[in-house]
C-alpha cells in the first residue's frame, strides 16, 4: 500500500522468552537459536492474532552471526516458525543495540510507507555461539587505516567500564549497590507478576533464570576483579579494577519479537496499539570509552523529540555494567528511581542481539503498569555507538 505522506508507527504486540544462563548448564542451552527465535515469532503471532502472511518483513538483531546463528538466522527462524514462505527476513548487527536498531528500521519502514506490518526481533544464544566466534583466531577485523588512526589499539568493553568508573568517580561500593538494586527490583517484579504478560515460556523455563535474591554488599565485595591485566594497569593507571561478575551483565540466552504497524493499519486489522514510536536516533561516540554513547544519544533523542528529561516517565538503560547507567544518570540528570524499574540486564541478563527488543517489550509493559506516558530506551554498543528511542503509551 502506498501512502502520500508520513504516517505513525505503533507497537501492537511484544513478547520475549525468559532469559536463560548463557552456559552449558543454562535452562535454554538445549534450544537451537533458530528455534528460540521461532518461538518468539510464533508466540507474537498467536497473541496478536495477526495473519503471518500479512507481515512485510522480519528484521532481526543478532551480534555473533556465525555457526548456528549464521546464514541469515532471521529467515531460518521465519520458516521454522511456520510462517508462509512469502515472508522475507533479514539480520542486522549494531552490536548490543542490534534489535533496538531493528525496531528503528521497522518503524522507519512503516512511517515511510514501505511496510504495512513488520516484525522487529532479536536473538542470541551466548552459551551455544560464544562472543567473538565470528572472528577466527588470528584474523584482523580492523585493517591498516583504522590501526593507524588508533595506534594504541582498541580495548575490550570490560576495560571501558573500568575507565568510566574511574573517570566518573564511581566507587566499588556504589557499583555493587547498583547491582544489588537491579536484582532486588527484578525479584519484586517477578514476584508481583509484572513480567507475566510479556513472557513466552520455553523449554520449561517460565522466569528469568539469573535473578538472585538475598545478595549483600559484603558478599559482592569479596569478588575479585573480572578484568585485571598488568599491561592494561600500566596503560591506564587510573583504573581501580572494580568491575566484577556481580556488577556486569552475565552471559545469556534469549529472544524477543515486537510487531509494528501504523495506527491506520492497526484499526483495519483489529489490532490494539500499545505504544507509539515517538522518536528514534543513533549516535557514534569514543570507541575507547565505548560505552558512554548513551549520554549523547539521550540528549539527541530528547532534542529531536522536543522533550526534556523531566518529561520522561520511565527510562530503560541497558545495564551492560553498573558504571554505564550511573555515569548516564549523572550527566543527563535522569532520575534513577524511574530507571530500569523492573530490574535491568545485571539481574535479568543481556542476550546481546535480543536485548533491544527485550528491553522494549519490558518498557511497553511497564508504561501500561504504571500509567506513564513517555518511555526512553537507550543502549551502549561496542565500537562506540548508542541507540535511543522514545515511545508514547497509547
UniProtKB/TrEMBL annotation:
CDD domains: thiolase. Residues 271-393 form the Thiolase C-terminal domain. Keywords: Acyltransferase, Transferase. One of its GO terms (molecular function) is acyltransferase activity. It comes from the Bacteria. Residues 10-263 form the Thiolase N-terminal domain. Pfam families: Thiolase_C, Thiolase_N. Belongs to the thiolase-like superfamily. Thiolase family. This is Acetyl-CoA acyltransferase. It comes from Williamsia maris. The lineage of its organism: Bacteria, Bacillati, Actinomycetota, Actinomycetes, Mycobacteriales.
